[in-house]
Amino acid sequence: MKERILIKNAAFRFVLIPCWHLCLLYFTSSLAAQTTADQPHLNEAYQLKTAINGTFLTFTTDQLQQIYTVTTNNELVKYNIEGAELFRYSNNRLGQLQSVDASNPLNPLLFYPDYQIAIILDRTLNPNTQVNFLELEEQVQSSVITLGSDNQIWLYDEFNFQLKKLSQSGQITDKSEDMSLLFSNIPEIKQLEADHIHLVANAPETGLLVFDNFGQFDKLIPIKNIDYIQLEDRRLFYQKEGQYFVYNFRTLAETPLTLPFHPEASDFIRLQKNYLFRLKKDRLEIYSLQ
Q: Which residue range forms the structural domain that includes residue 20?
């Protein structure tokens, strides 16, 4: 005879339920609970405002909530927060445009690593200044740069394992210690970000290297395998393995970000004041805080 279990129902009658029914019920309930737990809560405070259609290699934003995209044709296109195009800049003589730093909206910084050339534009994307790293008094080789709060250029010199600050005339005004003296294994720096207090270098296999504005080493934040970092209002946003976090320099707290969507592995996300930007394969989405 098959095993049965006696259960008392709400009407105080006793019914017999086969064991396999109970097992199925338990499995279904457990699966539903697990599926709900695996889906993170969505942040409904952000609402999709608009989208800019197109295929973009990368993008950035500035403090005025203006957007700078790099197209597959190597063009820099600037938009306002409504998604309307404002200005364009193109220079195909210098190889691939790798990065755009718009931390100063009046002087966006472009970097063309193939020719080791940095270009500073004005707010209408007309070129103001060009710095050729190959023509400096000290020979340098760099694959990452950023704009300092004083409008000078920070770079990582891969020849001497140092961070160096350049004036717009190409003079070296500050430098860090040799990284080989600070670390047993020389960090492989993939990105630089600077604000008026910190200079942060992202070395995925080492962590986040924090310096002051003069290039003096402060500390190592041992968070590894970070894909991308963004400094904003004394907070460090970073993207790691498809998840997004914020690190507070004041409290030293690390907090996961709750997004208004379930991110995909290929998504690239930035936050700027009350806006959130999401780069997908065929469009750039703009979300606003309600």
A: 4-38
Residue with tokens 């017999």: 16
Model pLDDT for residues 117-146, shown as the tens digit of each residue = 999 999 999 999 999 999 998 889 999 999
pTM listed for this prediction: 0.84
56-61 β-sheet, strand order: 56-61, 67-71, 75-79, 85-90
How many Cα atoms are found within 13 Å in the side-chain-facing hemisphere of 251?
Answer: 7
How far is residue 267's CA from residue 280's CA, in Å, rounded to a whole number?
5
Give which of 134, 40, 122, 127 is closest to 91, Cα–Cα. Answer: 127
Round to whole Å and give the CA distance between 48 and 284.
Answer: 11
- Domain shared by 15 and 97, yes or no: no
Q: Are residues 69 and 185 in the same domain?
A: yes
Same domain, 19 and 60: no
Mean pLDDT, all residues of the chain: 87
Same domain, 32 and 60: no
Q: Give the span between the Cα atoms of 136 and 217, in whole angstroms.
A: 24
- Three-state SS for 179? helix
Write the pLDDT tens digit of every residue in 15-69.
444 443 434 333 333 333 333 334 445 778 999 999 999 999 999 999 999 999 9
Domain shared by 34 and 174, yes or no: no
CATH code of the domain covering residue 70 = 2.120.10.30
